[in-house]
Structure formats: C-alpha cells, structure tokens
C-alpha cells in the first residue's frame, strides 16, 4: 500500500480526500459538542457560586462519543446510513428523515472543506509523515476557526496540544525533502514565544490606550502554536495576512451589513487561514514580498 501511494500520487490524494470526509463529519461533532462540554465544566467549577442550573446545557453523560447524534428538532437519533458524509445530506434532500426539518448546509460544507484541505496537503507534501501532520494541523484549524466564529472562544483542549505537537516535531529536524515542517527546535521555541508575546503585547497596549480588550488569550495561544509548527520567520506573514483580511472583512460587515462597530469579530479564523496558507506556501510568499518591496 505504501508503494502504491508513493508511486501513484493521484491515488494517495483520492484516498486522503475520501478519508478526510469522515474526519470532517467528526469535526462537525467536535464543533457542536466541545463548547457545550466546556460550559458543563465551567458550571461544575462554579456551581457553588451560581446556585442555579445553567440553561441549554445537556445533562447526563455528554462528550464527543456519547450520546449518539440526534436531530436537534425532533430529537430522534440519527442512523448510521443517515450520517454518511455529504452523501446522506443529498439522499435525504437536506431534511431530517423523521420530522422533515431542514438540515443546515454547514454540515456538508465542513466535510467538503476538510477533505479539500487534506487533499491539498497530500498533493503538496506527498506520501509521508509531513502530509499526515499537515492534515492533522488542517483539521485542528478547521475546528478552531468554526468554534471561534460561533462562540468567540478557542478551546485549550485543541490549541495547547497543537502547540506541544509543534514543539515535539522540531526534535525530528532535519529530515530530507522537507520545506516548512520539521523546523529546528530553536526556531520552534522562538516561534512559540514570539507568537504568543507579539499578540499579547498588542493586547496590553490596546487595553492601556483604550481601556478595552481587543482580543482573547486564545488568539495568543493559536499564534504561539503556529509559531511552534512553522517557526518565527513565518510569523510576520501570518500576522500580516490575518490582519489585512480580518480588517477587510470587518469593514465590509460594517458597511454592507450594518454590523455594530462595538461587536467583536473573532480573529481566530483569520489566523488559522493565514497559518494554513503559510504552511504550504510561506517561503514563496516571503520571497514574493521581498522581491516586490526590496
């Protein structure tokens, strides 16, 4: 099998795409359930102070595995054949098989997005550990982005292990044929520290000047994790891309959709997108920037 994947990149990419569709289906579960699990933990830690039940928090055993997925409208458990990535959505006509309520298009979009990102990683790195790790990072960034977009939180349970994996990966440097992954331990440690401190400094300065909090600590940790994976040299590219795109989207929302300027905009999705692009084409982007302005 390894020889087939090595000699036939198209087969490897196709297998990765198909398998990543299933990962995307699981990510839908993570994106929905993990914030609820965090809220349950917070409630348990603070119940002595609250002295009242928290609303909209599931009771009983609740994690990424149990209970079985069910329709949010009628509560009927979803059967295995109704949970096939993308295909079930099409066969069911985007409706629950029991109550006929509409199923959000977001579910197949997350599955296809995850599969597409994984396939691109497979194409970029080829069969091997680099592709596997790049796919893992891509999946984590998808979950982080959508959770932050929905709840404006970046879970430590995802971003902290991501940081440690990046640091541990650096211990295997150098490997032949690698471009952006498996950087040196020094670059990884400096990247993690610089990533965290750069946004933390901006946060503290903004708070000192305005008295308001401009971003959350999850953003610091996410950039630190990306610095651990990609090194300190990648940080300017990530920060510049995420800031420009984030500002453009924020202005567009205010101008065209009348969004309140005081309403916070999650920064995690822009950091994640910029980090993913830098992982694949960071060196080319840096060279293009230097050629353009220097």
Topology:
Layout: H1 2-7, H2 9-50, H3 87-91, H4 106-125, H5 129-151, H6 156-169, H7 185-210, H8 217-230, H9 235-257, H10 268-293
Helix pairs in contact: 2-4, 2-5, 4-5, 5-10, 6-7, 6-8, 7-8, 8-10, 9-10
Taking all residues together, what is the mean pLDDT? 85
β content, as a range?
A: under 5%
Q: Give the H and E element order.
A: HHHHHHHHHH
Counted by DSSP, the helix tally is: 10
Number of strands: 0
Shape: globular
Which residue ranges are poorly predicted, with pLDDT under 50 across at least 5 consecutive positions?
none
Radius of gyration from CA coordinates: 21 Å
Structural class: mainly alpha
User: Span from first to last CA?
Assistant: 47 Å
Helix content: 55-70%
The biggest sheet, with number of strands, parallel, antiparallel or mixed sense and barrel status, is:
none
Give a brief description.
The protein is mainly alpha-helical and 294 residues long. Helices cover 68% and strands 0% of the residues.
Report on the structure:
The chain has 294 residues and is an all-alpha fold. The chain contains 10 helices and no strands. It has helices at residues 2-7, 9-50, 87-91, 106-125, 129-151, 156-169, 185-210, 217-230, 235-257, 268-293. The protein starts with a helix and ends with a helix. 32% of the residues are buried.
């Amino acid at each position: 099998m390894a020889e087939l994947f090595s000699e036939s990149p198209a087969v490897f990419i196709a297998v990765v795409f198909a398998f990543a569709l299933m990962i995307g289906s699981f990510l839908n579960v993570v994106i929905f359930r993990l914030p609820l699990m965090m809220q349950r933990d917070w409630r348990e830690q603070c119940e002595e102070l609250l002295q009242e039940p928290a609303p909209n928090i599931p009771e009983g055993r609740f994690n990424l595995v149990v209970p079985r997925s069910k329709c949010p409208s009628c509560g009927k458990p979803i059967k295995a054949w109704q949970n096939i990535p993308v295909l079930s959505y099409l066969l069911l006509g985007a409706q629950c098989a029991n109550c006929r309520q509409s199923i959000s298009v977001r579910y197949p979009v997350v599955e296809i997005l995850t599969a597409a990102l994984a396939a691109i990683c497979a194409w970029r790195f080829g069969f091997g550990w680099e592709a596997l790790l790049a796919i893992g990072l891509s999946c984590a960034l998808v979950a982080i982005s959508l959770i932050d977009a929905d709840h404006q939180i970046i879970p430590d349970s995802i971003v902290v292990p991501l940081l440690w994996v990046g640091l541990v990966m650096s211990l295997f440097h150098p490997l032949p044929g690698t471009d952006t992954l498996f950087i040196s331990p020094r670059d990884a440690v400096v990247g993690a520290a610089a990533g965290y401190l750069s946004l933390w400094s901006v946060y503290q300065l903004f708070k000192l000047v305005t008295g308001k909090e401009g971003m959350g600590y999850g953003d610091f940790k996410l950039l630190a994790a990306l610095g651990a994976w990609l090194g300190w040299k990648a940080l300017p590219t990530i920060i510049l891309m995420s800031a420009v795109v984030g500002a453009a989207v924020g202005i567009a929302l205010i101008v065209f959709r009348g969004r309140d300027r005081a309403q916070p905009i999650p920064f995690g999705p822009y950091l994640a997108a910029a980090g993913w692009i830098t992982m694949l084409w960071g060196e080319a982007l840096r060279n293009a920037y230097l050629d353009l302005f220097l």
